[in-house]
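TICKET #2291
ISSUE: user wants both folds in one file
ATTACHMENT 1:
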Amino acid sequence: MRAAVLHEIGQDKLDVLDDVETVGFGPGKVRIRVRATGLCHSDVSAMSGVLPQPAPFIPGHEGAGEVLDVGDGVTAVKQGDRVLMCWLPACGSCPACRRGQTQLCLAGFMNAGTPNFRRPGGDVFGFAGTGTFVEEVVVDAGCAVPIPDDVPYEIAALIGCGVTTGLGAAINTARVEAGSSVAVIGCGGVGISTIQGARVQGAAQIVAVDPVASRREAALAFGATEAVAPDALGDARQRITGGEGFDYVFEVVGKSATARSAYETTRRGGTLCIVGAGAMDDFLQLNMFELFFDEKRILPSMYGGGDVLRSYERTIALWRAGRIDLESLITHRVQLAEINEALTQMRTGEALRTCIEI
């Protein structure tokens, strides 16, 4: 079958091959025919080595498709069901799950170290235990989440990561209050979803910050009240908050430099929410006095900071009600053979989300 493979960490292009096969199907497993998948910045970060991932591997973790077969013991889905793929399924029994923090369950991360594909040359891993830039994939049953018939595959794929992450950061993690002021630094697909979450929560001012003009324009269409380049953020802070700083600032880039800027843009007693996934060797510097004196809350948000299954349901309900716009997030569509074109669209900032139709 066809798949887009990265042979070595650090390569910037994928090799579309037709000699890949799935492995590992058996009890507790589900085989899925992938119909649509989104390209998330985390895929690019894994390719570059910013996020740890063994190679060779197939990127992609925002996927949706049709169940082809289920292994023994699988009862939640059956052949023919339409599903989205959850790259971080909860085991339900670990300490994090028992506390109700299922987004912190480590069971899903263990899948990333087990190959779920093979080529004539050897094993191939799937990014984050999935790997959706492929025609078929075998995953744990918990990764296959049924979707209603009225949710298109391309919409379901986005709900599987970027939309859930962004909405959840505003709704679950930061719990944006109505009438508050918000700044969102980084306005790709996750940042735009964060903006929509802040709008749903009733924020009065939402400032979108991004160096790419087209993304700033898009942010306005999705609910931002103002959009500025990074060098104009200080002026926006002065005009909108009288220099005090925003009630909530979301860092959706994953770099210490933007996180530091976000901290400085947050008012005393306000909330800085870290949404971007960064590198292990990129350190954020804060001094002990400012931590004490400013009393700013620093809240990392992992996968939307809440139970992802409940978050999926909420997202679908908001989408059905017209409260959030998911269709317009997909600005480009390509076939699997054109995956490197999609990577260029991501890296240049041309695309919010590119849907790969498989």
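ATTACHMENT 2:
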Amino acid sequence: MTAIWPDHLFLIGCGNMAGQMLSRWLSQGLERTRVTVMRPSGKPVGDGVSVVTDYPAALPAGTTVLLGMKPYQIGDVAAALAPLCTADTRIVSILAGTTLAELRSRFPATRDIVRAMPNLPVGLGEGVTALFSDADTDAAAREAIGALIQPLGLVEWIADEALFNRVTALSGCGPAFLFRFADALARAGEAIGIPADQAARMALATVQGSANMAARASVSPATLADQVASPGGMTRQGLNVLDADDRLLALLTDTLAAARDRGEAMARGD
């Protein structure tokens, strides 16, 4: 799918995640003159990209709005932004825990609203973005928003919004969990006697290379692990520790469940 750039892209906030998305879009050919960033600090986001500190009197026709601020700011943002939105405005929200029903209640004039949950590698074009919308969103708008997201990496439409917090726990939060694993692998290497700087480099390169191999393989990661582990060998002995009582699976399940539960609590306003 070829990227389809909106006539105008209006970002509300440009923090870590929204900034990664914008950086990738610009690198893939989005014209800077089509972009406006609303940022109270006025801090620049890149040469040629317009940054404003207050809302304009009106939005250009064909504007796609990216809600990229903190979720708790939705009330103040909607109060100022909703009067500017028309029937042809499209809204993409990356706000964790903010349901489509809440977005529709705050932006009643806007038909085409899509929830998105990207992860940080979108800046490299290697991210994962989950998308969800309901039947009220026009099919052409869904296609256009999907095409806008496509340069960021894998795009997955979610059929049931109830799954959104679970998907967020896996792919949205997942990079942080993987970063923690890479750090732990390096520290474990240090603990068994490898110099710390070497352990850090080797652990990171091992994670990177193995992930690339798994992505290109025709078999599952579980099968790859077993293929690497010769009976009675060093790898098998280490896998026996990870696999005992499904301890690694249990740890990761508890980790994802904790993230999922926090998303659901945020949706309740807790």
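RESOLUTION: both attachments delivered.
EXTRA DETAIL ON ATTACHMENT 2: The radius of gyration is 21 Å.
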